[in-house]
Amino acid sequence: QVQLVESGGGLVQAGGSLRLSCAASGSIFTINAMGWYRQAPGKQRELVADITRGGSINYADSVKGRFTIPRDNAKNTVYLQMNSLKPEDTAVYYCNAHRCSGYGCYPVGSWGQGTQVTVSS
After folding, report:
1. Cβ contacts of 29 within 8 Å, gap of 6 or more
2. In angstroms, rounded to a whole number, what is the distance separating the alpha carbons of residues 102 and 75?
3. What pLDDT shows up at residue 11?
């Protein structure tokens, strides 16, 4: 079992920055990657960015160049550094752990409460 705790959301003006944190515990050795997701009201949950254990990173086109995924392996924590925030970034942000097989990678943790990010215009 992998447990995840998200934090760091808040209210910020457009152009500002926030850093979200996701701390993992439990069966961390089973994780192949960590991903950040977001869901706006009335919208589907979407993958924002992910990072593999080896350090490969993918970003959604909507956040490329503005968001990064730093990590602290000693703390078993990944971050979502959000810069140049836009009102369109307003959503509940979630993290999850990925495990991979020959058929793809899948989130395997429980979806928690997430952390709210609100960007004002």
Report:
1. none
2. 29
3. 98
* Strand pairing category for 115-120 and 10-13: parallel
Collect all residues with Cβ–Cβ distance below 8 Å to 38 and sequence separation of at least 6.
45, 46, 48, 89, 91, 92, 93, 94, 117
Q: What DSSP state is assigned to residue 19?
A: E
Per-residue pLDDT for the chain (121 aa), expressed as one digit of tens each? 888 999 999 999 999 999 999 999 998 888 899 999 999 999 999 999 999 989 999 999 999 999 999 999 889 999 999 999 999 999 999 999 999 888 888 999 888 899 999 999 9
Among candidate residues 25, 27, 23, 30, the one with its CA nearest the CA of residue 8:
23
Q: Give the CA dihedral 6, 111, 87, 13, nearest 10 degrees.
A: -20
- Torsional class of 46: left (φ above 0), alpha (ψ -120 to 50), beta (otherwise): beta
